[in-house]
């Protein structure tokens, strides 16, 4: 740590992604359903190379769902 830096503690994110092919329920469909969770343990983390590392946390737990439709 240099003179003008503040030490930050380490962190580990736990993420999960599940992709389900919809062809099992809809014959002939090549679409997919995507379910994703980020930072499941809701860790408090900071970007050590940011000028605002002392004030701003990285995003907390989040969830996302999406459908992939090929065309």
Describe it for me?
This protein is mainly β. Helix content is 0%, strand content 28%. It has no helices and three strands. A three-stranded antiparallel beta sheet has the order 1-2-3, with no helix packed on it. The chain is elongated. It starts with 15 loop residues before the first strand and ends with a strand.
Unreliable runs: none
End-to-end span in angstroms? 51 Å
* Oligomeric state, counting identical vs distinct chains: single chain
pLDDT averaged over residues: 87
Radius of gyration: 19 Å
* Biggest sheet strand line-up: 1-2-3
What spatial form do the alpha-carbon principal axes imply?
elongated
Note the total helix count: 0
What portion of the residues fall into strands of 2 or more residues?
Answer: 25-35%
Q: Kindly state the number of beta strands.
A: 3
Topology as a string of helices (H) and strands (E)? EEE
Helix-strand category: mainly beta
Residue share in helices? under 10%
User: Major β-sheet, in short?
Assistant: 3 strands, antiparallel
Features:
single chain; 71 residues; mainly beta; three-stranded antiparallel beta sheet; elongated
Fold blueprint:
Blueprint lengths: L15 E6 L10 E7 L23 E7 L3
Antiparallel strand pairs: 1-2, 2-3
